[in-house]
Amino acid sequence: MAAGAQSELSGLSSQISAVADALSRYANDVDTVQQQQRAIETRQDDTTTALTRARRTLEGLKSKKDTDPSDIYRTQGHIEALNWQMRGFSGQLAALASQRSAADNAAILTLTGTGTRGALAGILPDRDGGVSRAVTPTVTLQQLSALSATELAALFALYPDLAEQLLADEDPNAVTQWWASLSTGTQTALVFGASALIGSLGGVSAVARAAANRLNAAKRLDEIDARVAELRGTPTSGGFSTPAYGYDAGTFDAEISRLLAERGYLQKAVEGTVQLYLYDPSTRSIIEMIGTPGPQTTAINTYVPGTFTSAFSFYGGGVQQVGTWLQSTDPSQVTFVWKQGLFPGEDPETGDVQILPRIIEANFSFWADYTGSHLADFQAEMRAATTSSVGASHNAIGYSWGLAAVTSSESPQTHYDHVVSLSGAGMPSGWEPQHGTVYSHYAYRDALTMAQQSGQVWSGNNPGTSSAYEQHHYATPEDVNVVIPPILNPFAGEGAKVVVPLTVVQATTDPLGNHELIASNDVRNWSALGDVLKGLRQ
Fold it and tell me: What is the pLDDT of residues 239-248, one digit of tens each?
């Protein structure tokens, strides 16, 4: 055997041995932590049962008129002692979490040391023979593509802000070219090892992003489960705040409810029944992909929901109804249900809708301009990444306020083949239809169409009265015409003078229900949805 080959094999053997030793130590450390955790959790469960029994005993004692006060005091003391035990368990679990984190960090530092670094050599900065974590290294996509899934996972665990750094620097078109140049094996390694980056990287194929976000969702489920367990294991003294935590049972219940709602949605992503093109709670952003872009795709639609939209709107499936109906009726239709950033009227903490006074936010032009700029950026990156659907049309569907964001995003660079208004609110001042774009408006009589008759919604620049839009108006049994008599001035010099003429308001007795109906897959709305699909196919 040549001396060079012998040296290379010797070095490889040494590297494998060092990695094996590091992994063995790490496995032992993790096993120790898990055994201690199970023991603490068993004692925690026993104490929780005892605490529940003690509280029931206290309630029974208080309900009896002849109870000896000393029995109540004794039981209260027992409850407080159990509460302190629970606090102790929480502290012990927190210490174990720190111990596990230390084991993780030690493993990472060892696996990225000079003896085990492998392809990471040249990327990780040295510090006394180890790795410096003080400064995130500058890394290129080309360098990442040379790493294995394990090496990628170690790199992003060591530098959690590396993904954010790369996301800020990369151009979607350049990313598309880079991604297309990679082998399937390299793409797979990046999805598995750098899912935090790939799940949000503009220019990466939509299918790969959905796969990466499936892994990110699984990680988030672990975080949610840990937090819910912590909340449920935290004593609240029967619902009253405690000095140790400063929360009460109501606060805990509200957070648990939010977390479980998120968990239910992300579980669907893990199972593959929901495809997430983007999931970033820190920026209030979710983009769900309904269908899969490919050569068979004839239309790629971006659906922008309306006022009050929050993450909870996705959790419950409300904003996906139109896209789901289109795709189930015509599988060649792919829809991205789009939300990036805070929407008008949104309550990100509870998802509650407070119509007054927050409905006025839907009339602010700056909000539509801001959201429209993000929508234009999304169009650029999404179109760069869906090159497999070369012949597909690119359309935008704006529901209610969502139309204002859609029309604010339009420019020569952001051109739609078809813009669909589902009871759209309005267009920005100075808006003009784009050459080559088909505009269509679909609506029932509802709260918005009634308000638009005042001329105050988007200064009267509304799709229902715009000559640029094909008009599709649908009647319901709740439709009524409200006649407002003229207002006269009886003191006018030459007899009564009409100050305000007779007005006929086209109204409905179900204004909110009809507004929601146009964006639903309710059987009563199938006719309207069929017209929308017919228009998208043209």
Answer: 443 434 444 5
